[in-house]
Amino acid sequence: MNEAYSSDAAPMSKARRTGLGIYLLVVNLVLFVLLVAVWPGIEQVFPKFVKLPDEIRYILIAAVGGAFGTMVVLMASFTAFVGNRLLVSSWGWWYVVRPFIGMTLGVMVYFAIRGGVLKTGSDPANLNPYTVAALCGLAGMFSKQILDKLREVADKQFNSEGPPTRDRKLGVAKDAAKNSEKL
Questions:
Q1: What is the residue range of 35's domain?
Q2: Which residues contact 90 (CB under 8 A, 6 or more apart)?
Q3: Model confidence, pTM
């Protein structure tokens, strides 16, 4: 085991756990407010609200939907690991960055919808915001599985023979590996 990584398996401190928990709650609340703010028809409720072009509105719905879906997984994971006293320091950034992965994947799903994977017509007015939010939310929720499947398809399609060799490999703490086997 590489000693440089041994401290990563240390349990997350109470202060960091609390901060991360607050971060997850705040991000979830902000995403909800953003979703309501960009939803079609909001101008009728709040007339002084900024009018967005439909295409921009749907891209924002897709991004927020993807992040929202990811938040379901993050909050369930966070509560399970904290409740079982298995949350380790090295996973902190995973929780911080994951909503942005969901956002990006949500926008990519929206581009696939608009590009013709699903027949919706060329006018954004033909789109159903519930469908966009649901599909992008599911993409965010299952982002790991989707990315794994896309990697598998790309490997087959492009005749890749596995991951490239690198001079320096990432180390994995033995304790973290043991903890993940328990779940």
A1: 3-159
A2: 5, 8, 9, 173, 176
A3: 0.77
Domains in the chain, number: 1
Q: What is the mean pLDDT of residues 39-58?
A: 80
d(CA 182, CA 170): 22
Q: Model confidence over 5-18: pLDDT tens digits?
A: 445 579 999 999 99
Encoded amino acid at 82, one letter: V
**Residue 128 is assigned to a structural domain of this protein:** yes
pLDDT digits (tens, 9 = 90+) for 117-131: 666 666 677 788 999
Contact 105, 66 (CB under 8 A): yes
Report CA-CA distances (Å) from 182 to 72, 85, 96: 22, 12, 24
75's CB contacts (< 8 A; 6+ apart) are 24, 28
Answer whether residue 174 is part of any domain.
no
Please state, as a whole number, how many other Cβ atoms lie within 10 Å of the Cβ of residue 167. Answer: 4
Residue 148 within any structural domain of the chain:
yes
What whole-number distance in Å separates Cα of residue 150 and Cα of residue 4?
32
The answer as to whether 106 is a domain residue is yes
